[in-house]
Amino acid sequence: MNTQMNKLEWRDRTIPHRVWIEKNDRLTTRLYMEIIKDVEPEIIHINLNYNQEQIIEAWKGKYIPISDEYNDGILYSQVRGLINIGTGCVIWMVNHIQLSNRCTISVDRLAYLPKMKYTDKKLIGL
């Protein structure tokens, strides 16, 4: 393990995103996700109060759907679970919008939910 930056394996080959973590300080880590769409890639991140070892151990390499997909052909939206860790979880809010030129942009966000875990199609309070 690199002590500064570590790439996390993304197992879903149909989604060409990159995920990595970087050390902030001795106890915190920043999780990055590069979302690849037709327009410039979007890089989102979140600071987590966990060290790299804890995140690597909790990482499963894929997302778990929490909400149903919404897709009307122009707007796609879904909430997905990325990591159950410690006493909380990291979710990924996915929003893709098809522009009039047929290119798709991503307007996504990562969030940490304290005292919550996810399972398939469900968030659970601890």
Q: What brief labels describe this structure?
A:
126 residues; mainly beta; 6-stranded antiparallel beta sheet; 4-stranded antiparallel beta sheet; 1 helix; 12 strands; globular
Description:
This protein has 126 residues and is mainly beta. The chain has one helix at 52-58; strands at 5-8, 18-23, 29-35, 42-48, 64-65, 70-71, 75-85, 88-98, 104-106, 109-114, 116-119, 122-125. The strands form 3 sheets. Strands 5, 6, 7, 8, 9 and 10 form a 6-stranded antiparallel sheet that branches. The chain is globular, with a radius of gyration of 15 Å.
In brief:
The protein has 126 residues and is mainly beta.
Major beta sheet summary:
6 strands, antiparallel
Q: How much beta, percentage-wise?
A: over 45%
**Tertiary shape:** globular
Tally of helical segments: 1
Q: Note the run of SSEs as H and E.
A: EEEEHEEEEEEEE
Overall structural class, as computed from helix and strand content, comes to: mainly beta
Classify the helix fraction into a percent range: under 10%
Rg, alpha carbons: 15 Å
Distance between the termini: 31 Å
Number of strands: 12
**Regions with pLDDT < 50 over 5+ consecutive residues?**
none
Look at the structure and give the mean pLDDT: 90
